[in-house]
Amino acid sequence: MNPTIELLQSHRSIRKFTGERIPRDLFEACIRAGQGAATSNHVQAYTIIHVVNPEKRAKLAELAGGQAYVHDSSDFLVFCADMKRPTEAAARAGADVIRGMTEQFLVASIDTALMAQNIAIAAESAGLGLCYIGGIRDNPAEVSELLELPEHVYPVFGMCLGYPDQDPEVKPRLPLASILKEDTYRDEGDEALIAGFDETMRGYYRNRTGGTRDTTWSEQLKPLFTAKLRPHMQGFLRDRGFGLK
Where's the Nitroreductase domain (predicted)? Predict the structure, then answer.
């Protein structure tokens, strides 16, 4: 073990922050760390919207499902997959650009996620806390309008950043044997591993809530796969210029 590995294995989502503001130099250092992430073909297909206007922060908190920490954190970022900048650059260089390809959507989304995770690691290394906000995709059209996002750009998720005012337990992860396979995908024995993990998570939730929450990992997955999750995203992405050709 070394400090970097220990840091990566100790991530917690922070949803309560002190009123202390992140110094600008530290904030920008974290963003630069994000830029150091791997990027497909050096495309760098991302843009971050740093939302500082209090009214916009409050509106984003509402659009993301009423999550108060979107407004209360020191800083709030909206990470956008951006194929506008690279395709326009290629066009200016003389390319007959084709837009809306599925691979472009994947590249932009993956680039954005990799960059955001670098920022998360940098922030935690400096004693900051964070929480990803996937609720941004609950109302992506309204978020896009609020932030004046152009075509070929879409909001992937948000991130709250600030100094933690809580110290939650690290949430358990699946057993390594269930997610690490050699040579081929083999799931013999996974059912037993998942059953054991479900009991681990039951204990975690009981401890975290003082016994008021009695559920497992498998049980909490049920709502995700028994209804169409964010069905508006397909049409929204098409309207954004991600036609998935």
Answer: 9-163
